[in-house]
Amino acid sequence: MTAHLIDGKAFAAGLGDRIAAGASDFAARTGRAPGLAVVLVGTDPASEIYVRSKGRMARKLGMESFEHRLPADTTQEELLALVAGLNADAAVDGILVQLPLPSPLDSRAVIEAIDPGKDVDGLHPLSAGHLVAGLPGLVSCTPLGCLMLLRETLGSLAGLDAIVIGRSILVGKPMAQLLLAENCTVTMAHSRSRDLPEKVARADIVVAAVGQAEMIRGEWIKPGATVIDVGTSRVLRDGRTLLVGDVDFAAAAERARAITPVPGGVGPMTIMSLMHNTLVAACRRRGLPVPDLDG
Ligand SMILES: Nc1nc(=O)c2c([nH]1)NC[C@@H]1CN(c3ccc(C(=O)N[C@@H](CCC(=O)O)C(=O)O)cc3)C=[N+]21
Ligand SMILES: [Mg+2]
Prior knowledge:
Pathway: One-carbon metabolism; tetrahydrofolate interconversion
Subunit structure: Homodimer.
Structural class: alpha/beta
Number of strands: 11
Strand content: 15-25%
Domain Tetrahydrofolate dehydrogenase/cyclohydrolase catalytic: 6-121
Binding site for NADP(+): 166-168, 232
Bound molecules: 5,10-Methenyltetrahydrofolate, magnesium ion
């Protein structure tokens, strides 16, 4: 392997120290810690783990964590009533509703009910619009984390050719907007794209967010490219469950200049970006200056 490993876990830990300092400063000025509310509907085991680690991280950094666990048969009205209560709660600066919601709940309507000032997931249409318009707002956690890793690895991204594979509202679309704002030339590829290998081969930056285990082959990667792997798929291999990304890591690492591992790459940055957004939302809501959290 020749690529530099982009250590998301270590970068997230450093960012966490700066967020903790910002949270403590916020508490000293306002008399209360920044507050994050996480809503989990149902008992999906993976979601349980994510929600627990978000709550644990918030408390570790000196923030208040409000965890709301609702049964899988919660009605749309009950969920909207909870969101309305969190919108009105002065101790809550950020609201995250864990996705996916069990059917038949309508996640779009729930997300649109969140106060955009508390939308720490960056999923409200107003947050998405702010990003496209280049206005300050809250940016979706996974793309924000990817951008921080790219800046840390490459410095300026201006003029680089980037490809984002995957066009979800949670990751692909905001990622492309962030790269465009960094003056990259951005290609957005997806399941219907033609000649994907050729398109990937032209990119200096590859962000893989398709959700299909090891779909991006190592031979496609341009030598010297930087690869950010958003995927986390559990696969059974030699009788053991393994977490793998959207990129064929071993082969890609032979060609890339730098690459994120799975786990330990993008995942830890997603959670830390949520903490980042919670502190930013808290400061904005109180009219306080947002601390400089870039290393
Ligand atoms: N409203 C909403 N916002 C989200 O941001 C959101 C969501 N819903 N639903 C589910 C996905 C998934 N997600 C992850 C967070 C952390 C890791 C993470 O820390 N992963 C570790 C490995 C963890 C493991 O071993 O399973 C790593 O990559 O190193 C992964 C995935 C946030 N999501
Ligand atoms: Mg990861």
